[in-house]
Amino acid sequence: MASPVHIKEEPTDGQHVSSESSMKEISDGSLNNNDSGGPSDPPYIVPSRSCLSRSQKKIVEAKVRAIQSEAPIYIVIMKSSSIVVSKQMLEFGAHYAAAYLPAREQTMVLQCKGKIWNTDMVIRNGHRLFLRGGWPKFVCDNGLRLGDICLFQLKKNESKLTMEVHVISREEF
């Protein structure tokens, strides 16, 4: 029998959620590479206000398995606030940001399909992390649309804060 894998859902607006209510269990041991039998970091994290359909979840989990990231992958379903020209910014959930991203404003390098974009990671309200400058160009250059899914993989051992972005087009599910 496959061991349960915990997929963390987290708030993106600074609200606090108990660890029990912020975790979903799925029975797919192939995602869990932890041989110790104890809890480990979830393989991916989805903001609590986002919900993956069954077909989206299946595709995301296959992609996560293929990526084999050391840190959990942050999953974002593109909403109007991320892609509409007048708003274009991307928020990282508070819990993901606190656990995996530095707590200071700086440049974040995004890599996608062999190209790079420098974006500005900014902090609002003391703890909310957003990508701004450079994010609109990333959106445009990659043809991101409402409903597309981006998987943000934190790259270790880079001289600059870097994330590889894997895009799943809405037509794939």
From TrEMBL:
TF-B3 domain residues: 75-171
Main localization (coarse): nucleus
GO cellular component assignments: nucleus
Domain of life assignment: Eukaryota
Subcellular location: Nucleus
Composition skew (Basic and acidic residues), residue ranges: 1-13
Keyword set, alphabetical order: DNA-binding, Nucleus, Transcription, Transcription regulation
SUPFAM superfamilies for this protein: DNA-binding pseudobarrel domain
Single GO MF annotation: DNA binding
Pfam families cross-referenced by the UniProt entry: B3
This protein's record includes keyword Heme: no
Region (Disordered): 1-47
Protein's name according to its UniProt entry: TF-B3 domain-containing protein
